[in-house]
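Thread: "does anyone have the structure for this chain?"

Original post by V.I.:
We have the sequence but no experimental structure in hand. Need at least a predicted one for the grant figures.
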Amino acid sequence: MSSFETLATVTRRVIDNVERVIEGKPEAVRTSLTVLLAEGHLLIEDVPGVGKTMLAKALARSIDCSVKRIQFTPDLLPSDVTGVSVYNRETRQFEFRPGGVFANIVVGDEINRASPKTQSALLECMEEQHVTVDGVTYDLASPFMVVATQNPIEMEGTYPLPEAQRDRFMARVSMGYPVSRSEMDMLDTHSAANPLDDLEPVTDAAEIAKLVEVVRTVYIAPAVKQYVIDIASATRRSPDLRLGASPRASLHLVRAARAHASLEGRDYVIPDDVQSLAGPVLAHRLIAGLEAQMGGRGPEQVITSILRSLPVPESTVGSGSGR
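Reply from O.Q.:
Generated one for you, tokens below.
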């Protein structure tokens, strides 16, 4: 079995396993797996009660790896996230006690209920995959992924995530309300017991690490890379946006497109991969201008307009040709 066939088999198992818990949200499930394979971090944003934490937990439980959950509250301290050095009277030395980020998958529940200072404790670990405490650097596990949930900023008791924090999340997904059929299925399966209790791992961290290496080999033609740059540049020039996409956003879009292509069974990226992920990868990083807000146009609508206005590369180099 080739590496891409193995990837297809494993990812299908993970998707099927998560969908046993998350009813009628295939795009959210697929995007979360795309972010995992692209070595990114996922932000799940929506109103309370639609399954944000359930999706994060289901993904974590589908992989036999270390998982930690951090409940973000106003009194949470940065040291609760990163860890702290504690003096041991018996040994007369300081000992490091790891915080919640020391795991393969970190579930940050309601991240925007913590203070900006505590939110910022995640900046280093999300970007560099290590933590520095009292001048000592500690490496984090590999693979490493932060899956954070947040309520809309209009909700009581929330703090908006700083721009630097949002920019470190590869993609944002919204759960939305389920359709009637899916909600009926949820009432049938979730009312008697918690479906997470019966969820068993279908893969492990070592196998996910191998699949990440496979995704890195996915080919992306120069024309498609230029297409990504053109999209990012258009957001920076748009009069409807006060803040455009950063260079990190372009990099994340390329990585996510590689993972998306691999899930489609291809070892090369096409413009469709970029277009399908432009919204989830870019929208949460952008800030709409005042006129756009007054006109009811958010970052998602601006991205859609940009994609319509830009020329799409006519041909890309496929598998085995012209590399």
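V.I.: this helps a lot. Residues 3-19 form the longest helix (17 residues).
O.Q.: and The radius of gyration is 20 Å.
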